[in-house]
Amino acid sequence: MSFIKAAAFAPATVANLGVGFDVLGLAVGEPGDVVIAERRDLPGAAIRAIENDGGKLPLEAKKNTACVAAESALRLIGAPAGVWLTIQKGLPAASGLGSSAASAVAAAVAVNALFGEPLPRGDLLPACLDGEAVASGYHPDNVAPALFGGITLATGLTSNQIHQLPVPEKLHLALVTPDHAVPTAEARAVLPPLIPLKAMVTQTAMIAALIDALHRGDVAAMAHFMMRDGVVEPARAHLMPKLDEVREAAREAGALGLVISGAGPTLCAICETQRSAQLVAVAMKAVYDGVGMAAMAYATHVSEEGARVLSTE
Length: 313
Ligand code: HSE
Hints:
The protein is of the alpha+beta class and 313 residues long. The protein has two domains: 5-165, Ribosomal Protein S5, domain 2; 172-300, Alpha-Beta Plaits (2-Layer Sandwich), CATH 3.30.70. 36% of the residues lie in helices and 25% in strands. The chain is built from ten helices and eleven strands. Helix 6 runs antiparallel to helix 7 and helix 9 packs antiparallel against helix 10. The longest helix has 20 residues, at 197-216. It starts with a strand and ends with a strand. The protein binds L-homoserine. L-homoserine binds at residues 15-16, 21-22, 136, 139, 141-142, 184, 187-188, 262-263.
């Protein structure tokens, strides 16, 4: 069965989880992006409209993550028609919330739904990665949790190399996004091309300890090991406005730890209760309020669901 119109949602994601650069990520429940795909007679994907992006995102098909993902999904499906896309942005671009991945994933899921879901979810991964690659190269740490939900470990680029990790029952998150764009390409350009062997050994140990903490459901240990990134955060910290101050405010308000979300500038605090996450969100936002910088803050949690089809008609 196929439809004339399908809409899909893909959530914001927190990539890296501190120490797990380009391999670990998690999906949150809200916010996220919605993409509506409508059949068109011409082959390929084209943009009908982009809403709520402040005119910042490219309308040109081959530069737009949703369009590239949709084109790739059409090819994988062997679709008999093309699509128009309407992209409804819920996530700000260059914010560290996996905005480009959310649009790519929502587009691939919407296209698949339009043609009656011929592909299982895992088979859409290459299309989502093709879309994300337009923005920042091939790394699945945003795309995988946006597509599959939960906390994911990526050991490669194929769906059998995406591993779901346990989500601790007591894990709550507080996110704060200052109104300050940090393009991912810029945040990757400041990273060291080579790292000393000693740093590699420590980073490896910390990722292993973090994964062990997840399996034990130990949120305090999880926060501790997430923050033991000795490679990426030190190189990027200067790009994140008020990182130290927000970390301190989050700690004082009860957070167990705080890391940069993806390439930033969103910061993600780890908490053990919903109430604590709410207090931490308020405290983090107050730091930006204090210097006259607009910021959005919210308490949230890991969503096991990932992307979902919203409607078909
Ligand atoms: N792992 C990526 C980075 C996530 O930190 O650059 C951003 O897309």
